[in-house]
């Protein structure tokens, strides 16, 4: 794929807008350039569309689908992956529990897993096949903790799919936070 394509330019412009909200204009442009250098495409066109990224010291290949909203890599996912990687000493994810709600292609879950987190990637039932494929392809035998992929249709069967642990200190902390 041509890196000067309209799709590439659109992604680059979206990244710049996202980062300008967080940083100064010059810093945002430098950060976007760094993020875009981490992105690559297959040298040979195949029957399966994918994009590649370099994060957490690994080459990550993400299979996308254009026929569904949740099966593309969004600019915000690239920004978050970059943030997690470049701030990994400040925000150490090793052995931390992470749940990604609406994981889509799974890129953020994959990067968090590669950085040592205990990850649960969730999304709608129709996206789980592609999500599971991406997660397994990019994390198997590469992570301290193998990430889990679970269905989450917001508000449906939450107690069944994500039971609460009664009496744990974690539940107590959540309960205390709600009261204050």
Which labels suit this protein?
three-stranded parallel beta sheet, 7 helices, alpha/beta, 180 residues
Written overview of the protein:
The protein is an alpha/beta fold and 180 residues long. 43% of the residues lie in helices and 16% in strands. It contains 7 helices and 6 strands. The protein has helices spanning 6-22, 25-37, 75-86, 107-114, 128-139, 158-161, 169-179; strands spanning 39-40, 50-55, 58-63, 97-101, 118-123, 148-151. The strands form 2 sheets. It has a 3-stranded antiparallel β-sheet. Strands 4-5-6 form a 3-stranded parallel β-sheet, covered by helices on one side. α4 (107-114) runs parallel beside α5. It is globular and about 50 Å long. The chain starts with 5 loop residues before the first helix and ends with a helix.
């Amino acid at each position: 794929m041509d890196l000067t394509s309209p799709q590439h330019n659109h992604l680059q412009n979206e990244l710049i807008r996202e980062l300008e909200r967080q940083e100064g204009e010059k810093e945002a442009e430098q950060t976007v350039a760094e993020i875009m250098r981490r992105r690559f495409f297959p040298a040979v066109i195949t029957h399966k569309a994918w994009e590649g990224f370099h994060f957490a010291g690994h080459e990550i290949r993400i299979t996308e689908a254009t026929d569904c909203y949740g099966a593309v890599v969004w600019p915000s996912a690239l920004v978050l992956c970059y943030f997690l990687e470049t701030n990994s000493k400040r925000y150490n994810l090793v052995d931390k529990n992470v749940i990604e709600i609406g994981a889509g292609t799974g890129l953020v879950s994959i990067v968090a897993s590669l950085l040592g987190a205990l990850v649960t990637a969730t999304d709608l039932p129709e996206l789980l096949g592609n999500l599971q494929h991406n997660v397994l392809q990019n994390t198997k035998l590469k992570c301290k903790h193998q990430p889990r992929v679970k269905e989450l249709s917001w508000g449906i069967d939450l107690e069944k799919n994500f039971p609460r642990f009664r009496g744990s200190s974690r539940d107590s902390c959540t309960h205390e936070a709600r009261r204050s």
